[in-house]
Amino acid sequence: MQQLNERAKYDQLVQSGRLIQPIAAETLSPLNQSKILFLAELGHKITAVSGDSREPSLLFLCISVIVQRFNSILLHSSFPSDTE
């Protein structure tokens, strides 16, 4: 249901020729197949421009690092501060 709402929200942009793929990376859930395919295609397009064949792997690695950093910020924020 949520995916249908997300897609309907961006229909006008898609009709104008833009590619829209909402990406949400959760800590304990794997990326769904459409997001994996999108990121792999994006990585291959970046490779075509840069010439670096590692781009798809680096893209997935960056997403993993971003999720880990966000989790560490949440964990750090969950403890009481010494200054309070």
Walkthrough of the structure:
The mean pLDDT is 81. This protein is mainly α. It is extended, with a radius of gyration of 17 Å. The chain contains four helices and no strands. 65% of the residues lie in helices and 0% in strands. The chain has a domain of 53 residues. The chain starts with a helix and ends in a 6-residue tail after the last helix.
Strands, helices and their partners?
Layout: H1 2-9, H2 11-15, H3 33-50, H4 55-78
Q: What portion of residues is helical?
A: 55-70%
Subunit arrangement of the protein: single chain
Kindly provide the radius of gyration, computed on alpha-carbon positions and rounded to a whole number of angstroms: 17 Å
- Low-confidence segments: none
| Secondary structure tally, helices | 4
Structural class comes to: mainly alpha
| Number of extended strands | 0
| Global geometry | extended
What labels describe this entry?
84 residues; mainly alpha; extended
Brief synopsis:
The protein is mainly α. It has a domain of 53 residues.
